[in-house]
TrEMBL record:
It comes from Marinobacterium mangrovicola. Residues 3-102 form the NusG-like N-terminal domain. InterPro entries: NGN-like_dom (IPR006645), NGN_dom_sf (IPR036735), NusG-like (IPR043425), Transcription_antiterm_RfaH (IPR010215), Translation_prot_SH3-like_sf (IPR008991). This is Transcriptional antiterminator RfaH. One of its GO terms (biological process) is DNA-templated transcription elongation. GO terms for cellular component: cytosol. Signal peptide: none annotated. It comes from the Bacteria. SUPFAM superfamilies: N-utilization substance G protein NusG, N-terminal domain, Translation proteins SH3-like domain. Keywords: Transcription, Transcription antitermination, Transcription regulation.
């Protein structure tokens, strides 16, 4: 009876997705933790998926029963990570902890919507109600605040407002 373990495959630079697809096409069982990352591109806030560990994939193999030969010549794959001459084993608890963390993170995060009423929780306008207008980069937002009978547009820190 051969025991299966998680091992680490290193992808060529910028080819994690390609290596993942090619190895899956060959029938290998993989785990590649992808996370959503918010970035500002051309002044707009966008969400992109990126690998949690760029350039690395976890692969489920048996040292005795699995055919390791095709892995090395797979498109996008650079090598299998080793310690000395033996492939490095990743404890199953580590992979399971990553999977659990990703499941929790995929729960819907509270995102502010245009025209949503919010409360300012810090700063000189603390305790005042405002209206969310749009994000202003990664850490700030534009809000509309009624002052002296007129609507004023302010840029505030995201940590100082609550939806």
């Amino acid at each position: 009876m051969s025991r299966y373990n998680w091992y680490v495959v290193q992808a060529k630079p910028g080819q994690t997705a390609r290596a993942q697809q090619e190895l899956e096409n060959q029938g290998f069982d993989l785990f590649v933790p992808w996370i959503e990352v918010e970035k500002v591109k051309r002044g707009k806030r966008v969400t992109e998926e990126e690998p949690m560990f760029p350039g690395y994939l976890f692969i489920w193999l048996s040292e005795m029963e699995s055919n390791w030969r095709p892995i090395r010549s797979t498109r996008g794959v650079a090598r299998i990570i080793t310690f000395g001459n033996k492939p490095a084993i990743v404890p199953p608890a580590v992979v399971e902890a990553l999977r659990s963390k990703l499941r929790v993170d995929k729960e819907p995060e509270h995102q502010l919507k245009v025209q949503q009423k919010i409360e300012i929780t810090e700063g000189p306008f603390k305790g005042l109600d405002a209206v969310f207008e749009q994000y202003d980069g990664e850490q700030r937002a534009f809000v509309l605040l009624e002052l002296l009978g007129k609507w004023q547009r302010l840029s505030v820190d995201l940590g100082s407002i609550r939806g």
